């Protein structure tokens, strides 16, 4: 397996473009429930590689709107799939990137999102009631992008996150759950959006995060687990919010992410030698952006969207990534 | 996608795979289109129900189909049935999801559906025994989740489900039995941080309710951790748990005792990062919390700085952190 010491941007751009052409591939259809997320991941990765136009803007917006479920006032992940908070956030993110928020009925989407908050403060993903701090973050992120945060009961929301805090400084999916890098990121980012980073025991959490780096440079999501490109982003973005990216070895992590590229067909995998997918491609590219990899566009680690866009909406928080290196 | 190897197919193998996938794909799409069409036309027939079973076996992540199935339960299947029949129906879905979990232990939708089933177990079998169905179901669930944790002791879905089951059981086992469960898990593998985490939660409850004497129990915890530390000093799970036991370091005697004991281990394992890391942590606590009782504060400060310099060498990826801690100690020391 050949690996590369460079980010193969043209190859990854082609890989993302080709994702919509795999309609005779079983996996393409088995993952239809993630399609809206996948479009957001692909588009964001393209933005960070400065190839935003590689996917047609009009087609993308038409696809997003074809997933609107009018009875619910929310988006599904694919036409005929049920509405859910995760695709609703992705749809909003895509529309913000394409400056097309005017296509949606903001009061109705806001109402859908707020209706999912539970008495405990956490959010359900849909009316069937699965709860998770991921959904809480999705709600906070979406409301913030829609400029509707003033409608949220912030105290109640923060109180749930506080109860998910563990002795290692991290956060879990629900009260009582073990700390996990993905949940740490969603809780940290939600607190950043709500200007409540005071809830975090910052030294302890940054220590736990720094200890996620393994000798091969990759980061894991929990103690004594394997490294993975997606966890690398979640740890790294959390460290950016805490302004502690310097607590890990950036060069080794950069090499690890680059080594997970598919140098023949494009895309980035969870780890070297594995099959790539768009999920690890965005988190790999986004991680490299935070590490100052030359030629990339800045990503905002709180929203996982292009930083200049978030800044132009007046939503930038006090995170800190590594300075962009000259190529 | 996680852990799927990239394979180089020969041209012939690629063609054969394409053909196989093509047949599977055709069958999948036909079934999926059928189920979606029925969902749209609000078809609540038994036939439609069976089709969702087939489709979910092919794709258990298709949450819209789980939703459709739940709508059928609520709108059509439950109202036509007695509590005992409803109980049986749900128990069939619990069997189906157990079978699916064995192949897909990390699919949110399957765990989620299981929980939904539990929430709909009816009262009964009789007015004198309203919790009978629930009791036998929950007992089975505890068994199922233990099977899942036997297969993968770190599966966080399973641990979260386990906590949910224990919290909602009609007749819960005594909390001490959960402590015993974590002991078994930890003794099987000291690296199982999920079990250490669970232990911290269970102990907190037992101390708060007074079921365990905090002072005595914490003594036993330090003993357990000491064994683990000597078994594998590089295992961070154990050290993170140890830091939890020390907490904010209010007991100077405890800090001093642990410092001595870790120092002994470090003497045997002179390059142990976690020994050094923990010594710095606990010595700093001594300096911060018990400065007034310290004979020789300068010696402690110097020892921290020396350990940090060594950590910087043996653990270069995190050297900035060690530097920042050292700077903090130096500036704190100058101020006084
Ligand atoms: Zn991953």
From TrEMBL, chain A:
Entry keyword annotation includes Signal: no
Protein name: Geranylgeranyl transferase type-2 subunit beta
EC number: 2.5.1.60
InterPro entries in UniProt: PGGT1B-like (IPR045089), Prenyltrans (IPR001330), Ptb1 (IPR026873), Terpenoid_cyclase/PrenylTrfase (IPR008930)
Cofactor: Zn(2+)
Prenyltransferase alpha-alpha toroid domain: residues covered: 10-305
Family: Belongs to the protein prenyltransferase subunit beta family.
Keyword Transcription among record annotations: no
Organism whose genome encodes this protein: Somion occarium
Keyword terms of this UniProt record: Metal-binding, Prenyltransferase, Repeat, Transferase, Zinc
Gene3D superfamilies: 1.50.10.20
Catalysed reactions, semicolon-separated: geranylgeranyl diphosphate + L-cysteinyl-[protein] = S-geranylgeranyl-L-cysteinyl-[protein] + diphosphate
Enzyme class: transferase
UniProtKB/TrEMBL annotation, chain B:
Record's catalysed reaction(s): geranylgeranyl diphosphate + L-cysteinyl-[protein] = S-geranylgeranyl-L-cysteinyl-[protein] + diphosphate
PROSITE patterns tied to this protein: PFTA (PS51147)
UniProt keywords, alphabetically: Prenyltransferase, Repeat, Transferase
InterPro entries given in the database record: Prenyl_trans_a
Organism encoding this protein: Somion occarium
Function, in words: Catalyzes the transfer of a geranyl-geranyl moiety from geranyl-geranyl pyrophosphate to cysteines occuring in specific C-terminal amino acid sequences.
Family the UniProt entry places it in: Belongs to the protein prenyltransferase subunit alpha family.
UniProt key word Transferase: yes
One Pfam family matching this protein: PPTA
Official protein name in the record: Geranylgeranyl transferase type-2 subunit alpha
């Amino acid at each position: 397996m050949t690996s590369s010491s460079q980010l193969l941007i043209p190859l990854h751009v082609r890989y993302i473009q080709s994702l919509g052409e795999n309609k005779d591939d079983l996996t393409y259809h088995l993952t239809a429930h993630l399609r809206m997320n996948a479009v957001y991941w692909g588009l964001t990765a393209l933005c960070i590689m400065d190839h935003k136009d590689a996917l047609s803007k009009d087609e993308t917006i038409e696809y997003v709107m074809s997933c609107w479920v009018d009875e619910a006032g929310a988006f599904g992940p694919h036409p005929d799939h049920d509405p859910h908070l995760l695709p609703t956030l992705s749809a909003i993110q895509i529309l913000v990137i394409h400056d097309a928020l005017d296509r949606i009925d903001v009061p109705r989407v806001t109402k859908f999102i707020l209706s999912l908050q539970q008495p405990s403060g956490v959010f359900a993903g849909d009316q069937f009631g699965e709860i998770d701090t991921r959904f809480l973050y999705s709600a906070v992120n979406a409301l913030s992008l829609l400029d509707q945060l003033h409608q949220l009961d912030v105290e109640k929301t923060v109180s749930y996150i506080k109860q998910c805090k563990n002795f290692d400084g991290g956060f879990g999916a629900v009260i009582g759950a073990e700390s996990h890098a993905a949940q740490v990121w969603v809780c940290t980012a939600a607190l950043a959006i709500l200007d409540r980073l005071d809830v975090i025991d910052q030294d302890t959490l940054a220590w736990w995060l720094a200890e996620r780096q393994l000798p091969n440079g990759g980061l894991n999501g929990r103690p004594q687990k394997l490294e993975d490109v997606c966890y690398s982003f979640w740890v790294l973005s959390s460290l950016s919010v805490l302004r502690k990216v310097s607590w890990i070895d950036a060069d080794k992590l950069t090499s690890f992410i680059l080594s997970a590229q598919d140098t023949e067909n494009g895309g980035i995998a969870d780890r070297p030698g594995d099959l790539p997918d768009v999920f690890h491609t965005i988190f790999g590219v986004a991680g490299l952006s935070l590490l100052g990899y030359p030629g990339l566009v800045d990503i905002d680690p709180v929203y996982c969207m292009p930083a200049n866009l978030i800044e132009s909406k007046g939503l930038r928080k006090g995170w800190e990534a590594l300075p962009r290196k000259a190529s | 996608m996680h852990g799927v190897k990239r394979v180089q197919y020969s041209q012939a193998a690629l063609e054969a795979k394409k053909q196989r996938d093509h047949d599977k794909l055709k069958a999948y799409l036909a079934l999926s289109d059928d189920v979606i069409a029925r969902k749209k036309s609000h078809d609540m027939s038994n036939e439609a129900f069976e089709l969702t079973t087939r489709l979910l076996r092919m794709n258990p992540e298709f949450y819209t189909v789980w939703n459709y199935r739940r709508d059928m339960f609520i709108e059509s299947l439950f109202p036509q049935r007695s509590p005992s029949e409803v109980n049986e129906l749900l128990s069939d879905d619990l069997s189906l999801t157990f079978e699916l979990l064995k192949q897909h232990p990390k699919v949110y939708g399957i765990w989620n559906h299981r929980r939904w089933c539990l929430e709909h177990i009816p009262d009964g079998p009789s007015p004198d025994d309203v919790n009978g169905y629930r009791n036998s179901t929950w007992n089975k669930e505890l068994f199922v989740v233990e099977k899942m944790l036997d297969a993968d002791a770190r599966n966080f879905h399973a641990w979260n489900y386990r906590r949910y089951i224990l919290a909602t059981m009609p007749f819960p086992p005594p909390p001490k039995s959960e402590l015993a469960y974590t002991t078994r898990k930890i003794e099987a593998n000291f690296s199982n941080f999920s079990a250490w985490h669970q232990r911290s939660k269970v102990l907190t409850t037992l101390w708060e309710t007074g079921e365990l004497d905090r002072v005595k129990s914490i003594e036993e915890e330090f003993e357990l951790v000491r064994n683990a530390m000597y078994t594998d000093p590089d295992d961070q799970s154990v050290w993170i748990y140890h830091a939890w036991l020390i907490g904010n370091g209010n007991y100077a005697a405890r800090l001093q005792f642990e410092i001595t004991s870790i120092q002994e281990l470090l003497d045997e394992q002179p390059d142990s990062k976690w020994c050094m890391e923990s010594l710095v942590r606990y010595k700093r606590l001594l300096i911060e919390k018990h400065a007034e009782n310290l004979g020789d504060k300068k010696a402690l400060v110097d020892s921290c700085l020396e350990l940090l310099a060594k950590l910087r060498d043996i653990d270069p990826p995190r050297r900035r952190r060690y530097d920042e801690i050292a700077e903090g100690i130096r500036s704190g020391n100058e101020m006084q």
